[in-house]
Amino acid sequence: MIDLGLTKLAVIGVVALIVIGPEKLPKVARMAGTLYGRAQRYLNEVKSEVSREIELEELKNLHKEVKDAAHNIKSDVENSISQNMADVENAWHDADHTHDTSATSSFTSTATTEDVSRKAREFRRKKLVRSSAIPAWYKQRHGGKLHVTSGAARVARFRPRGNSQATFY
User: What topology in the membrane does the UniProt record assign (predicted)?
Assistant: First the structure.
């Protein structure tokens, strides 16, 4: 940068006073100040734009590195999952072969999907009764619900019996 001390500024001011004259010196000084301010703003804008471009380039590089790392992790996970699935399938097939060659007179029970779904429903219903906030002994003593009633059963229970015709709105 230009090294301007107090003496150099004083010399420049005296020369400008002599060359320009005392009438036009305030206008020229004002214009020089505005031009200097514009130049500073322009330089600051250029600096900030350059720094933004550098940061953007760094972010792009970081994004690329993260993307590559994520892709590598994804491929590693997929490879390990496929290996584990192959191991499980091999173990399953080996277990099937050993089970088939073992005693043929052993009892095997086959459950249908209806039986499984029925047992699951009963289990969920009983679990809801067991896991409620009120203890079972309190329910028995004070006449609380001991089993879960479905929504349809509750509606049927509280539906008025005398009016057989349905009311439509």
Answer: Single-pass membrane protein
Please state the domain extents for the chain. 12-94, 114-158
- Contacting residues for 16 by C-beta, under 8 A, at least 6 apart: 25, 28, 29
Residue type at 162 in one-letter notation: G
The residues near 29 (Cβ < 8 Å, ≥ 6 apart) are: 16
Q: How far is CA 124 from CA 5, 44, 113, 117, 135, in A?
A: 89, 69, 16, 11, 18
- 144-153 pLDDT, tens digit per residue, is 666 677 778 8
pTM of the model: 0.37
What is the Cα–Cα distance from 157 to 116, expressed in whole angstroms? 29
CB 83 within 8 A of CB 77: no
Q: What is the DSSP letter of 143?
A: T
Gap between the Cα atoms of 168 and 152, Å rounded: 19
Q: How many CA atoms lie within 13 A of 155 on its CB side?
A: 3
Q: Tell me the three state secondary structure of residue 97.
A: helix
What's the chain's Rg over C-alpha atoms? 44
